């Protein structure tokens, strides 16, 4: 059976049929399964900090610094210093470090020791700059500093940035400042 010539011409000249209509829109169909799961999870399942840290000016005085802040050049950049900062070698007892990603996180641990440097913060502005660099997962807390450079005073009361984030985010490991500096191209 063949189609007459007239009908073949009409079929050829007619516009193509319209595209099929889009599927009915379902608002949740555009969300990823992960987002849907998070939305259905009870808030009690998420990390709730034990206390909220009030936003206040950071204290001044000796700061025990470990990790990335123990690099004098980075410290100079953060604080906007014209010269390399003066610091002393020291340690704090009663703390240990774990890793928060690639960064060290200071936690309380009796009889453990963490080595670092001490920089004397003279202004609240500098204290606030250090606190901003450390993010909300760290808080400046009082500590007892023991100097290892042989100069006086041999000990001092000061501050250090203690990790106050979710400890479930931490892993075991050691921070190596030299390796970190190479990794970031310094």
Automatic annotation (TrEMBL):
The keyword Transferase applies. SUPFAM superfamilies: Gamma-glutamyl cyclotransferase-like. Coiled coil: none annotated. Residues 14-26 have a biased composition (Pro residues). Keywords: Transferase. It comes from the Eukaryota. GO terms for molecular function: transferase activity. InterPro entries: AIG2-like, AIG2-like_dom, GGCT-like, GGCT-like_sf. Residues 1-13 have a biased composition (Basic and acidic residues). Residues 1-34 are annotated as: Disordered. Residues 63-154 form the Gamma-glutamylcyclotransferase AIG2-like domain. Belongs to the gamma-glutamylcyclotransferase family. This is Putative gamma-glutamylcyclotransferase.
């Amino acid at each position: 059976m063949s189609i007459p010539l007239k009908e073949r011409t009409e079929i050829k000249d007619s516009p193509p049929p319209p595209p099929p209509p889009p599927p009915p829109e379902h608002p949740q169909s555009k969300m990823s399964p992960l987002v849907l799961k998070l939305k259905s999870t009870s808030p009690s399942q998420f990390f709730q900090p034990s206390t909220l840290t009030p936003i206040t000016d950071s204290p001044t005085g000796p700061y025990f610094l470990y990790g990335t802040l123990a690099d004098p050049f980075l410290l100079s950049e953060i604080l906007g210093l014209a010269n390399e900062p003066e610091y002393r070698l020291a340690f704090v007892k009663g703390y240990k470090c774990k890793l928060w990603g690639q960064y060290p996180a200071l936690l309380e641990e009796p009889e453990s020791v963490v080595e670092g440097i001490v920089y004397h913060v003279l202004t609240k502005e500098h204290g606030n700059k250090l606190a901003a660099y450390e993010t909300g997962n760290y808080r400046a807390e009082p500590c007892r500093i023991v100097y290892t450079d042989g100069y006086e005073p041999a000990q001092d009361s000061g501050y250090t940035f203690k990790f106050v984030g979710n400890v479930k985010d931490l892993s075991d490991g050691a921070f190596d400042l030299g390796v970190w500096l190479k990794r970031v191209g310094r």
